[in-house]
Amino acid sequence: MASKRGAETKECPTCKRKFEDEPTEEKPSKLARKDTTVDVDSVVEDKLNQLPPLPSPPLNQHPQFVHCVPPEAPTYREYSVFLAGSIEMGKAVQWQKHMATFLSTLPITVNNPRRGHWDPTATQEAKNEAFKHQVEWELSALEKADVICFFFDATTISPVTMMELGLWAKSKKVVVCCDKRFWRAGNIHIVCDRYGVPFVERFEDLVPAIKNMLEEKGMRLDENSNLIK
């Protein structure tokens, strides 16, 4: 008899809708089991051929080179580059990994904000700890950077990237790559021209622009690519 009453409690006596089983440690609720994260670090097809092929044979990575991503705190060398640019929740091409590879011969820190897995349903408010930590990680790395590198993926709208360019355009530590096919390329070009920001349209030209600015900031290397103090 008790067993029958227990069975009856699994549906609403009014609408006859079945109740979900109570979640337990062994059997969490369906909501708890659902994984809403996306892999923003996955491979993205470069439909517009914006990125050059990776070097072949591969470059020899400098032993002091560091490629840092959130949420871990960056490890800083004497000079650092921040990869500010299109991510768009993983829709942008993997330009950050490309750039890290091309800069890997230098004894520097490269800070890449493209976090491997991210929950797109996370509330974008300061009270959300994950969101707040991500933004503060980026702000801190931007402030410490010797060079801030902007790359605008022509297949995105990149509102946060445009906002960051507005914040740092006058800093004298920005270089920009923006393909003419980007929907606001004209605006980007005018801002760079007005504030003397080095501007290129191809990824291939962005790499030497970053190295030139690092030299302007005082980085000197010997024949083994080690820092000259």
Automatic annotation (TrEMBL):
Protein name as annotated: Uncharacterized protein
Organism: Macroventuria anomochaeta
